[in-house]
Amino acid sequence: MTITSAATEQADLAVVAPTVITVDRSAVVAPVNRRIFGSFVEHLGRCVYDGIYEPGHPTANEDGFRLDVIELVKELGSSTVRYPGGNFVSGYRWEDGVGPRDQRPVRRDLAWHSLESNQVGLDEFARWCELTGSELMMAVNLGTRGIEAALDLLEYTNHPSGTSLSEQRIANGAKDPYNIRMWCLGNEMDGPWQIGHMSAEDYGKLAARTASAMKTADKDLELVVCGSSGSAMPTFGEWERVVLEHSYNYVDYISCHAYYQERNGDLGSYLASSLDMQYFIETVVATADHVKHKLKSKKTIQLSFDEWNIWYLDEHQASDEVNEDWTHAPRQLEDTYSVADAVVFGNLLMTLLKNHDRVAAASLAQLVNVIAPIMTEPGGDTWRQTTFFPFSVTSRLAKGEVLRPRIDAGTYTTAVYGEAPLVDAVATADAATGESALFLVNRSQTEAIDVTINVSDLNATVITEAVTLHDEDVYAKNTLQDQDRVGLKQLEGAVLDEGTLTVTLPPVSWSAVALG
Ligand code: AHR
Predict the structure, then answer these.
(1) Which terminus has fewer CB within 10 Å in the chain: N or C?
(2) For residue 434, how many other CB atoms are within 10 A of its CB?
(3) Quick count: other Cβ atoms within 10 Å of Cβ 473?
(4) In what residue span(s) does the Alpha-L-arabinofuranosidase C-terminal domain sit (predicted)?
(5) Rounded distance from Cα 308 to ligand 1 centre (Å)
(6) Contact 184/203 with Cβ under 8 angstroms?
(7) pLDDT average, residue stretch 86-98
(8) What share of the chain is helix, strand, coil (3-state, %, to 5)?
(9) For the chain, where do the domains classified as CATH 2.60.40.1180 start and end?
(10) One CATH from 2.60.40.1180, 1.10.3720.10, 2.160.10.10, 3.30.565.10 for 2-27+403-515
(11) Which distant-in-sequence residues (6+ apart) come within 8 Å of 62 by Cβ?
(12) For residue 86, how far is its CA from the centre of ligand 1 (angstroms)?
């Protein structure tokens, strides 16, 4: 099963059988860990410059950060923020971005063919994280650099004081160490596009040596080794096996990256994209556990799904987007998302939750302007893309424990995935507050679907919120000119009666129901 298969016209052959869902309070996947709601800020296009940072903007603070963007980031509810890349990190010298701003060098960023002014670096970004309430997740450069630069960076960020680099941090205004816990050991090192990409053998050895050295400094660091840059890579699976065989004892997570898009007008297959994500997760878990048993290890490696999103990558690759003029912060990868995109997106987030026992952390790639839920205009507005809504609602309502419900739904035929369920769902329940939530998707392009949900285990008495993302025009989008074209609507007709919740899910919709 692969998202790159040629798709033929999809026939939405929906025979809408009654859909019955049962929420079993004992079918616990895992406690909700806020790290599942992470995001990603890369020095790419207008994500940092003219995105989170725009010194001349009317809302900018003394650091040059836009406060209107910070407000939306908080509303989005993202937790951990991965930084500073992505492909960018593989050519990055972190030292360029610290110290007096007027002495920082301008450099070429080969990953995105742009100029990097280094006006935003580690210290500024750490302050931005504090303002947004985010946990900083840092990536080290294993493309052009190696162990020494990684250790230096770790000393700068985490050592309290009294060493050359920790004193440099203090002199730069950060008295307390940042105490960064999660670290990515490079980025997508299997990708031929990656600066300094290498074979699984070479990377596995380098990652192991870097991780071992970093853990000598702090044994409690949480280290993420690079998995394949996508499940369509020819080395997918084998890469994970080889890399983990070298690094298993020193790392805690293996990364997964996946981007989805509608191809060839095949909306039916696109709406079932989460089946591919499920396959991806199961394959990486199987490979990691194979290595665990082979090495007779007691440790279980978790997945850091630290790049996931909708990305119209084919269109970007086909267009002549390379920034030959080497400008600063060009408009790159600025996808505009539709209602259908947001429904698929919401379903991907549900899939991460359904696998939360193994997917312990995730990062929506990315946060602002670059394939992002938040858009900005220089000197002007900031607005929410359609994908903003499923993320913010899920992040706000998903509390306590994730429950995997039993779903009896009809199916439809897709060109890429064969038979796919018309309805998908996941639930959360918080024993401490008695609150629970259901997140649901209807993939049918033609039919509203009545769903009967047995929630008696949740002991709920009232529906506190019922919202849906749906539109007559599945390709409706929010744009600079029409910023509120798409938003959440009331999910009409939801009824809770003696342990049975009934809802009608509109065609091509993502919905959430909160119970108290
Ligand atoms: O998120 C955009 C890019 O996608 C990242 O820089 C890279 O890691 C991935 O290929």
Answers:
(1) N
(2) 14
(3) 11
(4) 306-509
(5) 10
(6) no
(7) 98
(8) 30, 25, 45
(9) 2-27+403-515
(10) 2.60.40.1180
(11) none
(12) 5
Distances, alpha carbon 489 to alpha carbons 336, 453, 467, in Å: 20, 21, 6
Q: What is the DSSP string of 360-421?
A: EEEEES-SBSSS-SEEE-TTS-EEE-TTHHHHHHHHHH--SEEE--EEE--EEEETTTEEEE
Average pLDDT over residues 303-329: 87
* Strand ranges across the sheet with 500-505: 406-408, 19-22, 449-454, 500-505, 495-497
Q: What residue owns the CA closest to ligand 1's atom 1?
A: 365
Residue owning the nearest CA to atom 4 of ligand 1: 86
Which atom of ligand 1 is found nearest the CA of 309?
Answer: 1
196-252 pLDDT tens trace = 999 999 999 999 999 999 999 999 999 999 999 999 999 999 999 999 999 999 999
**381-425 pLDDT tens trace:** 999 999 999 999 999 999 999 999 999 999 999 999 999 999 999
CA 305 to chain centre: 7
pLDDT (average), residues 12-32: 84
Active site residue 75: no
Query: Where in the chain do CATH 3.20.20.80 domains reside?
Result: 33-397
What kind and span of H or E run contains 283? Answer: helix 273-294
92 confidence band (pLDDT: 50, 70, 90): very high
> Does 188 participate in catalysis according to the annotation?
yes
Our answer on whether the CB atom of 91 is closer than 6 Å to any ligand 1 atom is no
Is 230 a pocket residue for ligand 1 (Cβ < 6 Å)? no
Average pLDDT taken over every residue of the chain: 95
Residue 5 in this model has a pLDDT that exceeds 90: no
CATH number given to 33-397: 3.20.20.80
- Give the position, in ligand 1's atom list, of the atom nearest the Cα of 188: 8
**Residue burial 392-406, b: 16+ Cβ < 10 Å; e: rest:** bbbbbbbbbbbbbbe
Given the residues 42, 95, 124, 188, the one annotated as active site: 188
Q: Whose CA is nearest to atom 3 of ligand 1?
A: 86
